Amino acid sequence: MLRNELMRIRNTYSFRLGLLLTESLFRKPWLLILLPFRFMNMNYQFWKNRNTFTPDLDKSELGANNPECLMLFVASEGGRAACERAKDLATEWLKEYRHHLVIVSSNPGLTGFHQQNLSLYMIPDPKSKEITSPTQWNKSCENTMYRAIYTHLPSKFVFDGPYPYRGVLNAMEAAPNMKSIWIHSERTNKEVIVKSGPLFDETKLMEYVDETKTKKKVHKRNYHSITNKLLLAPGYGYHEDSHRPPSMILKYLSNYEDLNIIGVKPYSDHSISSRINEQWDEVIDNPGIESLQAAIVSDNLELITKLHTMMVPTLCLLDQNTSPEAKKLIASLASSGALFVSMWNDKTEIQLCIKALFERDWNLAITQRGTVDRKATPLHKFINS
Question: What's the rounded Cα separation, in Å, for the pair 171 and 173?
Answer without folding.
Answer: 5
